[in-house]
Each structure stands twice: as structure tokens, then as C-alpha cells.
Amino acid sequence: MVTMTPDSNFADRWPELFGTLDDQQRAEVLRELAASGREGGPTREEVENLTDRARGAIDDHEYGRRARPSADGQNGGLRQLPPEGMSGVEGASHLWTG
What we know:
Blueprint: H1 10-13, H2 15-18, H3 23-35, H4 44-54, H5 60-67
């Protein structure tokens, strides 16, 4: 389980991913990351996918495509689209399988 400490502030770790988000989008992404419970925390790629989705750069279909495991199985553990009817990052916390 990820313990939120000052050094696990994802926005500080990858400021370039959060720079274009408004306050609400940023808060939603950070809330999802904090709730993910993935041991070791999310990868930069996972954070980028969430921030891209939050700001509307990608849709649910593209988010799901990016989340599928790569051929070598190294894709950070993201496995599926959020539940039907959920948009933005509100349904993403179930994606980390740790």
C-alpha cells in the first residue's frame, strides 16, 4: 500500500504532467493516485495517462488502449477501462492491481 508522504507528491515529482491541469483536474488526479493503493506507487506513464485523460487530451477508449499490458507485460499494472458511465479520473483507482 502506498503511504502518502511529502516525498510521494506526484505533482512535485512530475510537474510537467500537472502544469496544464486546472485546480479541479489536479485535485482529482492526485486523489486517484493517493487512493490507488498500488505498492511502489504509480509509474510516470500511469500518471501521464491519468493527467492526459483528466485534461481531455485522450478519451476513455485511448486511456484503455494505453492501459493494456504491453507484449512484454511491463505496463505498470493498468488493466482495464473504468466502469461504464464514469469519465475523467473518477473511476481510475481500480486500475492499479499492484
